[in-house]
Specification:
Elements: E1 8-11, H1 15-26, E2 31-34, E3 46-49, E4 52-55, E5 61-62, H2 66-71, H3 74-77, E6 79-81, E7 85-90, E8 93-98, H4 107-112, H5 118-133, H6 147-153, H7 158-173, H8 182-194, E9 197-200, H9 206-212, E10 220-221, E11 226-230, E12 233-236, E13 241-242, E14 246-249, H10 253-260, E15 268-279, E16 288-291, E17 298-302, H11 304-307, E18 316-324, H12 331-346, E19 354-366, E20 381-383, E21 386-388, H13 398-416
Parallel strand pairs: 1-2, 1-14, 2-10, 7-16, 14-21
Antiparallel strand pairs: 3-4, 5-9, 6-9, 7-8, 11-12, 12-13, 15-18, 15-19, 16-17, 17-18, 20-21
């Protein structure tokens, strides 16, 4: 394969790599993006299946992300928001807990839901006020502990932690023991309080597509896997070699560690997402439904087509089911357990829901347990001419992937003079 020896080679066509490319493009610096898969997007991809849109795992865009607000055109994405809150499955019943300011009709149900005490709600309101009034960057300068230790120190009851924070925050970080950093918890609370949880009308893959829309098509090379990096040279699997002035590694964590020749920097957290189809019904809520009982295997259930109708063909509803981790059981056994719990939650009609697909993501997120680095000030340079973007020295998520990509590009610009 003949590729141009541009000034910069970006390895990885996900959110971080594309954000890096956009910034370089504004400076007129020649570059090439090498993506190992058949299309850009990294983990943010959407498949079409019999009229359904299936994101690679349940994913959302938090509209309060500062970098996303700065870069993305939300109107063009045609964002559709989930209702501001969640439903909690407790002892065979579902209870709605919503933002009282944005959804006042659910105030009574929110107050009476059996997820904690009245004092817990006051503590949650105070914590939310605190994290939304502090400076954004100050959140990552706070003393750090695990989220569990932080919540216990804040005085939340065992019931509130088990029925609210474990399914909610554990689902966000794919960590049922909520060992993630207390800084991440506070950041997540701020994002939920200040913006919407939304889906682009035509699927999450519209985000990387928009990032790439202004880039020259010829610089995006798919189905190109990099074998190694050595002496500022990039060698592909087919043996071809590029010798750019700068290299940016913008792959997921394990692949970046391999290319950089360093031990695994952080472990991986897994997720399994199952999609089902059912007939459309009025009761399908635009909420995330969380397992507050902790009976498993389901952590959460969502109805994406109740938020954006394009996710399902006419007359149908798309159901997304998330199981934390990577269950060792075969798919048929997992499917049986999931269906059994769906029937318990939604009644006998769930037994007829048609299974569409299962996505098993071994590396869905990197471990976010403390200590964590400040994601606002990533250190992109590994050595002169070699840079990293994405989860290295940062945190996972669209906000940090976009920011780290831009910061890596700016470091490259400084390096090239």
């Amino acid at each position: 394969m003949r590729l141009p020896n541009n000034d910069v080679v970006i390895i990885g066509g996900g959110i971080a790599g594309l954000s890096c490319a956009r910034r370089l493009n504004t400076e007129g610096i020649p570059f090439t993006v090498l993506e190992a898969s058949d299309r850009i997007g990294g983990r943010v991809k959407t498949d079409r299946h019999d009229g359904f849109l299936l994101d690679h795992g349940f994913q959302v865009l938090q509209t309060a992300y500062p970098e996303a607000k700065r870069v993305l055109d939300y109107r063009q994405l045609d964002l559709h928001a989930f209702a501001p809150g969640a439903m909690f499955q407790v002892a065979g019943r579902r209870f709605t807990v919503a933002d009282p300011l944005r959804r006042p009709r659910d105030v009574i149900g929110t107050i009476t839901a059996p997820i904690g005490t009245f004092v817990d709600r006051i503590r949650l309101a105070r914590l939310t006020h605190r994290v939304t009034t502090e400076g954004f960057e100050d959140l990552f300068q706070q003393p750090e502990s695990t989220a569990m230790q932080f919540l216990q120190a804040e005085g939340f009851s065992k019931t509130m932690i088990a029925r609210f924070f474990v399914p909610f925050f554990g689902g966000v970080c794919l960590d049922p023991e909520i060992r993630a950093s207390s800084r991440v918890l506070q950041y997540v609370l701020r994002m939920f309080a200040q913006g919407d949880v939304a889906l682009p009308a035509m699927g999450m893959e519209q985000i990387p597509r928009q990032l790439a829309s202004d880039l020259p098509a010829e610089i995006l090379r798919t189905n190109v896997r990099v074998r190694q990096i050595a002496d500022n040279a990039v060698t592909m699997e087919d043996g071809s070699v590029l010798s750019p002035r700068a290299i940016v590694v913008a792959t997921e964590g394990p692949e970046a560690d391999r290319l950089l020749g360093i031990p695994r920097s952080r472990g991986s957290i897994s997720e399994t997402c199952l999609y089902f189809s059912c007939d459309r019904a009025e009761w399908h809520p635009p909420f995330l439904v969380l397992d507050a009982d902790g009976t498993g295997p389901i952590n959460n259930v969502a109805f994406p087509s109740a938020v954006s109708p394009a996710y399902a063909p006419s007359g149908k509803t798309l159901v997304s089911v998330v199981v934390l981790g990577h269950p060792d059981a075969g798919e048929s056994h997992l499917l049986f357990r999931v269906k059994d719990q769906l029937v318990d939650w939604f009644g006998s009609e769930a037994a007829a829901w048609e299974h569409l697909a299962t996505f098993r993501m071994v590396h869905a997120l990197p471990d976010q347990s403390p200590p964590t680095a400040d994601p606002n000030t990533p250190i992109p340079m590994v050595r002169p001419g070699l840079f990293v973007a994405g989860e290295h020295g940062s945190l996972p998520g669209i906000q940090w992937a976009m920011l780290s990509g831009r910061k890596a590009a700016e470091a490259v610009i400084d390096c090239l003079g």
